């Protein structure tokens, strides 16, 4: 029997892949899908730039956001900061980047296949329009992106924009529901409790529930921190809103700090990138304020809070430690890479591959 800790996008795909191999699977999560569905749902398979928080100059950018009240830090995590200093300015080998690209393409083909079977999660392939401070500078950064994105310079809402051509979108609200339903139908068991520890003695959940397993996949997002993995909880908010306005395009407005994705019955508005594990959601209203530059009138249907699990270099962590596999670190690209991360984790758990290029060794070297 396999235990999966966390039923977000990574955990749900892990559970489905394990089940497809005939394994008994038990997922622990107090609210499966609740964090992952905060996401905008933009898939960016050939663009890693958004996750490269360790490039030179990024701390200054973040500091400027903080000074303008567009980001906040509520807790200093020294383990994460020390690991950040180790990888600051570091680039990786072409092998690492082609591995990441494989994760992204595996993921994209998974969503495509799911949509071909039944497109009940609004999968569509279409360009993403990005508003940035300096289009020329951004174009330069994109040319340096290790995943070689295709883009052109265009216009949206009367503003110059980077048009990223390899994008797709999915409704994460609908996709999370579908994955949960499919997992249940496939026979995956869910226990809606938080896990307290994972050790040689088994998986201990709140309320004293201990389970012995043949293998464990830890896909609890930033909870992997409890196992010594440097992962930050980069909190953000996702709103579904009703509006009469016709947006027509998927927009990533980095100047105002907001993404807007039109779906059939709502527009998804997301934003904030706060180093903040607390239950205080005060900055969420700033996301709606920023969205008003694009759509003036709307009514909120609901809000989801998510914690992007970000390692210090923005790359995932997929690592085997004895009978435990850690699968996290999607950061801002967790849906873009989720199925790929899950597949790699399951291959490790089943002993099909010995290791990955994305272990925590890189924070120690
Ligand atoms: C506002 C916002 C917008 C985003 N937009 C995009 C986007 O457009 N495109 C994209 O690709 N990505 C996007 N992301 C990132 C993406 O959502 C995350 O990277 C992704 O959700 C990570 O998935 P995960 O399953 O690894 O972890 P999570 O989504 O963090 O899920 C972890 C799960 O584990 C559970 N859990 C935690 N601790 C425990 C425990 N102790 N015991 C049991 N269960 C536990 C939680 O309840 C949760 O369900 C966005 C994120 C946010 C917040």
From TrEMBL:
Residues 2-348 form the FAD dependent oxidoreductase domain. Keywords: Flavoprotein, Oxidoreductase. The keyword Membrane does not apply. It comes from the Archaea. Pfam families: DAO. Its cofactor is FAD. The keyword Membrane does not apply. Belongs to the DadA oxidoreductase family. This is Glycine/D-amino acid oxidases (Deaminating). It comes from Pyrobaculum oguniense (strain DSM 13380 / JCM 10595 / TE7).
């Amino acid at each position: 029997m396999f235990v999966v800790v966390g039923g977000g996008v990574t955990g749900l795909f892990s559970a489905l892949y394990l089940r497809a191999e005939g394994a008994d699977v038990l997922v622990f999560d107090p609210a499966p899908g609740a964090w992952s569905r905060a996401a905008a749902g933009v898939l960016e398979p050939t663009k890693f730039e958004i996750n490269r928080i360790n490039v030179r100059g990024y701390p200054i950018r973040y500091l400027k956001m903080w000074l303008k009240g567009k980001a906040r830090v509520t807790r200093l995590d020294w383990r994460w900061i020390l690991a950040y200093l180790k990888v600051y300015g570091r680039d990786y080998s072409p092998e690492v980047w082609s591995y990441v690209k494989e994760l992204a393409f595996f993921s994209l083909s998974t969503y495509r296949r799911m949509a071909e079977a039944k497109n009940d999660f609004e999968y569509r392939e279409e360009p993403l329009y990005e508003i940035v401070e300096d289009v020329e500078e951004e174009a330069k950064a994109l040319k340096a992106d290790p995943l070689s994105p295709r883009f052109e310079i265009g216009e949206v809402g009367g503003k110059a924009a980077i048009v990223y051509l390899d994008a797709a979108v999915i409704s994460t609200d609908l996709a999370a529901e579908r994955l949960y339903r499919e997992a249940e139908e496939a026979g995956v068991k869910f226990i809606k409790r938080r896990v307290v520890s994972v050790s040689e003695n088994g998986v201990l959940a709140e309320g004293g529930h201990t389970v012995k397993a043949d293998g464990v996949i830890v896909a609890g997002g930033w909870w992997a921190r409890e196992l010594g993995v440097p992962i930050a909880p980069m909190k953000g908010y996702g709103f579904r809103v009703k509006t009469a306005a016709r947006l027509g395009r998927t927009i990533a407005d980095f100047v105002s700090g907001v993404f807007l994705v039109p779906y059939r019955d709502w527009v998804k508005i997301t934003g904030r990138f706060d180093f903040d594990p607390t239950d205080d959601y005060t900055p969420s209203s700033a996301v709606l304020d920023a969205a008003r530059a694009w759509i003036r009138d709307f009514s909120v249907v609901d809000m989801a809070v998510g914690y992007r699990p970000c390692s210090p270099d923005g790359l995932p962590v997929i690592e085997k430690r004895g009978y435990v596999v850690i699968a996290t670190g999607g950061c801002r690209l967790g849906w873009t890479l989720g199925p790929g991360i899950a597949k790699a984790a399951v291959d490790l758990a089943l002993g099909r591959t010995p290791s990955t290029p994305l272990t925590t060794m890189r924070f120690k070297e």
